[in-house]
Amino acid sequence: MSEQVLAIQELKKTYRMGLVDVPALRGVSFNVKHGEFISIMGHSGCGKSTLMNLIGCLDRPTSGSVSLDGTNTISLDDNELANIRNKKIGFVFQMFNLLPRLNALENTELPLVYAGVHATQRKQKATEMLTKVGLGDRIHHLPRQMSGGEMQRVAIARALITDPALLLADEPTGNLDSKSEREIIAIFQKINRAGTTIVMVTHEQDIAKHTQRTVYLKDGQLLEDKPQENIIIEEQA
Amino acid sequence: MNIFESFSMAYKALTGNIMRSILTMLGVIIGVFAVITLVGLGEGAKAYVRLQITQWGTGTNYLELHPWEEGSIPLSSVSEAKLTYEDAMAIKDLDNVQYVDPRVIRAATLRYGRKQHKVPFIMGVSADYPKIYIHNPEQGRFFNEADVSQRRKVALLGKKAANELFGGLSPIGERMKINGDKFTIIGVLEEKGSMMRFDFDDLAVIPVTTAMDVFDTEDILEIGVATINERMTPVAQAEIEQLLTRRHGKKDFRVDSQEETMDMLNSIMGALTGIIGGIAAISLLVGGIGIMNIMLVSVTERIREIGIRKAIGAKRKDIFVQFLVESITISIVGGFIGLVLGVSLSLAIMKFLNLPPTVSYWSVAMALGVSIMVGVGSGVYPAMRAARLDPVDALRYE
């Protein structure tokens, strides 16, 4: 495994709205080392989401390159991108994005379904992941039977189940109360200590201060990239 | 992802909205039900007629001649046309003819001592009668060629007629009167039942020559002919027509074959099949459109789900297969329900008609095949739309 999990170079993305070109990213470059926990900050419209989509292989840049775990994702086709999303990236969204009809276990194992893993192995791994995020006793609950914090923990279990090179979190605490917010950040710090690289988008300084480094974006460009002393939240038992 | 997982996924999605799934299936259910029931009934009707024909001995190698002039009403007595006993003897000499049975039929009263019994039919027939109708004596013997040629006054009774006159006692060797003439009873025919209101058990059978004497007639009502086999029947028919036309100097008779009965039945069934087949096709088409419609709605409702699935690694193919399998599942389950209903109804009807219950495998295979085709046909387009969704747009969709 290379030391750089993520290498972004001169990344540009321009959307075409009718006849007008709207630049969302105007050439962003930075790297993320293995084992880092960074946050990307900026006001809405600064290009955070676009950057997330490009790192997460959900979208293609207009120019520039994204190298993920040593693989340049620019030249890949749709199937190869789906494969990267499946194996190298774990997503955690603001809206949790669980499938409402599937229970916690089934939601968690879903990436392994697409990876072609056998059912018994899947269930075992998913149970293990849910236990890790503190939901070992709720594996058969449906999303609507869980609180926001619990749903987000299921989403984290789902993101981690393929042992991804990079965990991408998009405003993961945006829909949570402050208690659940602390719990989720604590889980992120714990899995980061266990070796998972995390890139988290947030617009709250309060959240960003718990990471080791913050990348500021403004108007589609890198404003500042500075390491910081992160504040560790001790997980409550 | 293997196909079994796709089906279990589809099962989950469809049971999530059972009412909608069932309503969506309805078109396919009705279509398949119509096809299966129709095919079942058609086969049943054919089997019924075939059974009727062969059970009575008059199989597919059977021909029947009636005197008939062009333009006259069949079987009417006003006709000048005649068939004679000599015609029958001439026909018997043909190579492709096996049995010949010229008939003279009258209603008459049988008398034994002081008892009397009116039978609807006294049949004057040839010695070939038991072979053609498969109606053999249960007691005693049937009359032979010699009895016929010597115009002997011998008779056999049907089971019912024998019971009326003799109760439980054996009538063999007894003498009874028909129209004042004395006959010796030489046998009792086995029980056979009725065909088209002709009661084979309430009759007396005598040699045709004797009947001509007793009823004082030279006219043969009809001549039954069994050819050597079904394949040669058309040839024999042509030969008979040629022979009689030559003997009579004109074609004053008609030859009915079972083939015509079967042809008529087949053409009726063909028309019926066409009509119900058309209804079924329309129903399946409408059913297919219904499935496509619901699948399009379903894709729109689940855009976000598609986005999530794509984000965690589902390929276009996975999404495509997921929705296609859902559509196929709807139509297969619908087809299966229609199949079960259709088979049950046709079996019930066959039981009601006392037919051997048969289900033709090809109609089952066809019903399921058509269901799969409807599912694929109506699922491809919605599945393609789902698979082509852009993950970013899909995730952002509210």
Considering the chains and any ligands shown, give keywords for the structure.
A: 237 residues, alpha/beta, Rossmann fold, 6-stranded mixed sheet, 4-stranded antiparallel sheet, 32% helix, B: 398 residues, 6-stranded mixed barrel, two-stranded antiparallel ribbon, 13 helices, 56% helix, elongated
Description:
The complex is a heterodimer of chains A (237) and B (398). Chain A has helices at residues 48-55, 78-87, 104-115, 119-132, 148-160, 178-193, 205-208; strands at 4-17, 20-33, 37-41, 63-68, 71-72, 89-92, 166-170, 197-201, 213-218, 221-227. With 237 residues, chain A is of the alpha/beta class. Chain A has a domain at 1-86 and 203-231: Rossmann fold (3-Layer(aba) Sandwich). In chain A, a hairpin with a 2-residue loop joins strand 1 (4-17) and strand 2. The longest helix of chain A is centred in the C-terminal third of the chain and has 16 residues, at 178-193. In chain B, strand 2 (97-112) and strand 3 form a beta hairpin. In chain B, the strands form two sheets. A six-stranded mixed beta barrel of chain B has the order 2-3-10-5-7-6. Chains A and B meet through helix 2 and helix 3 of A and helix 1, helix 10, helix 11 and helix 13 of B.
Helix share, percent of chain A:
25-40%
Q: Per the principal axes of the C-alpha atoms, what is the gross shape of chain A?
A: globular
H/E topology pattern of chain B: HHEHEEHEHEHEEEEEHEHEHHHHH
Can you identify the CATH class of the domain at 1-86 and 203-231 in chain A? Alpha Beta
Which oligomerization state do the chains in this entry correspond to?
Answer: heterodimer
How much β-strand is present in the residues of chain B?
Answer: 15-25%
Unreliable sequence segments of chain A: none
Number of domains of chain B: 2
- Largest interface, C-beta closer than 8 angstroms, per-chain residues: A-B, 27 and 23 residues
- What spatial order of strands do you see in the largest sheet of chain B? 2-3-10-5-7-6
Residue-averaged pLDDT of chain A, rounded?
A: 91
